[in-house]
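quick one, 107 residues, struct below
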Amino acid sequence: MNLHMTGHHLEITPALRDYAISKLTRINRHFDHVIDVNMIMSVEKLNQRVEANVHLSGKDIFAECIDSDMYAAIDLLVDKLDRQIIKHKEKAHLGKHGSGLKHIPQQ
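---
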């Protein structure tokens, strides 16, 4: 997984980078085919904003979170991404193996 972090009106400290990396490992546990993650952290007055584009094999996923604390925003962002990736994984698995329902002909 390639990770690109950018800060707008914010310097990304090593502690902030390590925290984001440790949280993003949860995504790799659920789905191994994460190719690239682009994360943008920015400060807008009193709001801390984090947004991420996750490039998977066959799909791009976007999520953003705004909070007063950057660490809380990262937590919320990873929760959103995790839910979306699990949903994508289930859809891909369901489409590959069929719905599991057999068609019963009507008489």
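DSSP finds two helices and four strands in the chain.
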